[in-house]
Design brief:
The protein is an alpha+beta fold. It is built from five helices and ten strands, in the order ααββββαβββαββαβ. Among the domains are: 83 residues, wza like domain (wza like fold, 2-Layer Sandwich), CATH 3.30.1950.10; 75 residues, Outer membrane lipoprotein wza fold like (Roll).
């Protein structure tokens, strides 16, 4: 009996160290690392920002403005425009280069052309001047064809003289009457005769009563380029 108990104790004592050396649990497996790396896990770099898109077609450059030709400037002149001294004209006579001329309206209001000689231009429209030139050339040509182009104009002027506070030339702005021109001349002097104001228009002389006009008893008298107002 004692022998059996001793064998059991010896068996138990011999198995205790083996049990102590057996691991109680399997240790955790280390996390796998990315291929080609060592150490800690590396975060991949973010992609570079995209470059700003470039328009496929560049904006078109503004078109350059071509200089106005004499014909274009002539087309811009109103059909009822009346010529004044200093205006530059191009006179074209069809199929006759010698008669076609660049001319300027002289201070006396006339132009000079071969065969037609002196022709009054100031105060006329280009159409009226064309008809006058055609009439002058009919003595030398059969059915002349003439074109009048206004190449360059000068600012139209009127003139105020006599008993006013600011005599001299004035620009004719739009549709101006005698009352407006006298106002621009800063009114009358003390002894001005306001009942008998003269307006010289070429060889024509018109009269204007300022007192009646102020009272509304006289119609407005509109001025033309080159008119001269005389206040006595």
């Amino acid at each position: 009996m004692k022998t059996s108990i001793s064998c059991c104790l010896l068996f138990l004592l011999s198995t205790v160290p083996a049990l102590a050396q057996t691991p109680s649990a399997t240790p955790p497996r280390p996390a796998s690392q990315p291929v080609g790396t060592s150490g800690a896990t590396t975060t991949p770099p973010s992609p570079p920002p995209a470059a700003p898109s470039t328009p496929s077609t560049p904006p078109a450059a503004p078109a350059a403005t071509a200089p106005a030709t004499p014909a274009a400037r002539a087309a811009a002149i109103s059909s009822d425009y009346r010529l004044v001294p200093g205006d530059k004209l191009r006179i074209e006579v069809y199929k006759d280069a010698q008669l076609s001329q660049n001319v300027q309206v002289r201070p006396d209001g006339k132009i000079t052309l071969p065969l037609a000689n002196d022709v009054t231009a100031a105060g006329h429209t280009p159409t009226e001047l064309r008809d006058a030139i055609v009439s002058s050339l009919k003595a030398y040509m059969t059915n002349p064809t003439v074109t009048v182009m206004v190449v360059e104009t000068v600012p139209p002027l009127i003139y105020v003289m006599g008993e006013v506070n600011s005599a001299g030339p004035q620009p004719l702005v739009g549709k101006m009457d005698v009352m407006q021109a006298l106002s621009a001349a800063k009114g009358f002097r003390d002894f001005a005769n306001t009942k008998n104001i003269l307006i010289r228009r070429g060889s024509e002389v018109l009269t204007f009563n300022y007192n009646d006009a102020v009272k509304g008893k006289a119609a407005a008298l509109y001025l033309q380029p080159g008119d001269t107002i005389v206040v006595k």
